[in-house]
Amino acid sequence: LRDFNYDYLHPLLSFAAAHVPQNKHKETPLYILCTAGMRLLPESQQTAILDDVVTDVPLEFDFLFSRSHAEVISGKQEGVYAWIGINFVLGRFDHADEEDATVEVTTGSQNQQPISRRRTVGIMDMGGASLQIAYEVPGAISFNSPEEAGKCMLAEFNLGCDVDHTQHVYRVYVTTFLGFGGNMARQRYEDQLVNNTLAKNRFLSTQMGLSEDKPYMDPCLPVGLSDAIVRDNHTVFLRGEGDWARCKDAVRPFLGLHNGTMSPGGVYQAPINFSNSEFYGFSEFYYCMEDVLRMKGQYDSDKYSRAAAEYCSTQWSTLKQRLDNKLFSQQADMGRLKYQCFKSAWMYEVLHSGFRFPTDYQSLKTAQLVYDKEVQWTLGAILYKTRFLPLRDLQQETLRQNHSGWLRSSFVYNHHLFSLCILVVVLAILLYILRLRRIHQREQRQAEALNLLWAEEGEALLP
């Protein structure tokens, strides 16, 4: 396991080492964050793997790396990082201009007025096994006793570079629904279908679903599609009925709605201001709209429902022919065609019955790339981990500026002082020369006067 772990990491670290200047390695932080795959392991194995990583990496790579930089992150952290990543790419952490959509955010301090800043976007991500949602909660929330569990679904963090300032303190609701991904939802649906079919045949002595001649009519498969489910040596035969309305009714119970919220026992959902909010849907939200319906981008529930209902009611043979003629996206395959009807109904119910989005909500976009780049949680993770580095950089830059300013002023001062000294010396020399000249001139006048005197005395002595 140790060798496999390092073999997996080595190419990634080698790539980083090749692209980060060698003289910057010692000051470049390295973070190794593990997600769901590691969370499935016992804690003792997680600790052993991380200890190996912390021991092995510094032997070959010289990045700034310590034990605190290697960890197994929770689903909540992963959701927060994904939220940070998309909002960073969209520029929602920048200071607001006059034309920007803004929200009033309470700071939690009774003495401070609410802050007006750019409206952040929420995210929904439906994979094969799980479903995540994360969005900012601008206002304060009061938890009643039954909702105490909701506190653990709120993450509050500061993305600014000063812990004392609240301009970039964000309060985000984030939660994960295991088993609510598209593939797991279909599996749960099929499991119950098999159990119900076997129970009916046991007590009512019917043969519905137990032979190809008498298949169970599945409203969530395209019309004319034949399929079979095998569970514990039991086989149930299906035939597609392609009924969009009945499919929605059939999948809704699998949301586990309890007091209007999803999952058994009910999971607290923070309120959403649907009149002043914006969401992005990723993964299955995008695939359901784009792969065969070709409706990526802005979500419109009416158009989506009509397109999904039309697809479900289309003959299976026609759908296969369209696939052969490449009328769907390049990502579409037989599996997508087979389960598109179910997954589109599941997505609709998750959005409108589970998360309770109004059917006229116009601020949901589905995307795979943002600005032609794939936005992943890793981007948000590195932004969060290094969020206080700009402050240190700013302090160092200020120190450098002050130091260089002092050097410049010191140099100018010394330059003037040196010039003044030279001037004084030159003046002293000039004064000394002038004095010498004056002395010389005085001595010369005295000598001339003496010669003249001697000449006059000589003339007087002549006979």
Automatic annotation (TrEMBL):
Membrane spanning stretches: 417-436
Lineage top rank: taxon: Eukaryota
Alphabetized GO MF terms: ATP binding; GDP phosphatase activity; ribonucleoside triphosphate phosphatase activity; UDP phosphatase activity
GO terms under biological process: CTP metabolic process; UDP catabolic process
Entry binding sites for ATP: G128, A129, S130, L131, Q132
Protein name according to UniProt: Ectonucleoside triphosphate diphosphohydrolase 7-like
InterPro entries with a match to the protein in the record: GDA1_CD39_NTPase
Keywords for this protein: ATP-binding, Hydrolase, Membrane, Nucleotide-binding, Transmembrane, Transmembrane helix
Family: Belongs to the GDA1/CD39 NTPase family.
One Pfam entry name: GDA1_CD39
Organism: Sphaeramia orbicularis (orbiculate cardinalfish)
GO-annotated cellular components: Golgi apparatus; membrane
Classification via CDD domains: ASKHA_NBD_NTPDase4-like (cd24045)
Gene name for this UniProt entry: LOC115424536
Active-site residues, Swiss-Prot/TrEMBL: E78 (proton acceptor)
